[in-house]
Design goal:
Elements: H1 4-11, E1 35-36, H2 44-55, E2 60-68, E3 75-84, E4 92-95, E5 106-117, E6 121-128, H3 135-142, E7 169-177, E8 183-187, H4 192-201
Parallel strand pairs: 1-7
Antiparallel strand pairs: 2-6, 2-7, 3-4, 3-5, 5-6, 7-8
């Protein structure tokens, strides 16, 4: 299927001057089936400027996630190393330092805060201090509360709300400095498909 970048190139052909194919101008990733804010730079200079902030961890990003099960604490921090899971190229695995297989894995820090509790689920606001591949999905699975609808990190017996066809993960907020020095905040409400799931749980 056509990707987001194919659609963007039709509207902004100048993106071909920003970065390398096939990710022209795309500053950071969102997993397939994760909705929300994605930052795209129109020029190479802007791309480098934004990527530096992601690398230096000065960008603030918040996600909304519906986790399976009841999380007892009102907030928490998950801190591990993350690397590719042995035996499954699609997955990442969380390791504790000094655990066998943890050599060369990268630090990952995820903070979460409970927004709402339901019978079999917990709605969380999640902030990531590091940007590892599948970080939120891997970390919530690691604490035994995988994201609802996650086909890769969910457990066989994980509950799934009726009508949910993807993982319930949405990039809701992004705060970053623009090349002209202005600090800009972007917000994205839950899309209709996820709003519907929450309304059905109430």
């Amino acid at each position: 299927e056509d990707t987001l970048i194919d659609a963007l190139l039709i509207k902004y052909p100048q993106l071909k001057t920003a970065g390398d194919p096939p990710r022209y101008g795309i500053v950071h990733r969102l997993d397939k089936d994760t909705s929300g804010i994605l930052l795209v730079a129109k020029t190479n200079e802007a791309l480098i400027f934004f990527q530096k902030q992601f690398k230096n961890r000065t960008v603030e990003k918040k996600y909304l996630a519906l986790a399976a099960g009841s999380i007892k604490e009102d907030e928490g921090v998950i801190e591990t190393l993350i690397g590719r899971a042995p035996g499954d190229k699609r997955k990442q695995k969380a390791y504790l330092p000094n655990e066998p297989g943890s050599e060369g894995k990268r630090e990952a820090i995820t903070k979460y805060k409970v927004l709402q509790r339901f019978k079999d689920y917990t709605l969380l606001e999640v902030k990531i201090e590091t940007g590892r591949r599948h970080q939120i999905r891997c970390h919530l699975s690691y604490i035994q509360h995988p994201i609802a609808g996650d086909k890769i990190y969910g457990f066989k017996n994980s509950p799934k709300p009726e009508g949910l066809n993807r993982q319930f993960l949405h990039a809701a907020y992004l705060k970053i400095q623009l090349p002209d020095g202005e600090i800009k905040e972007f917000g994205s409400e839950l899309p209709e498909d996820l709003k519907k799931i929450i309304n059905n749980l109430k």
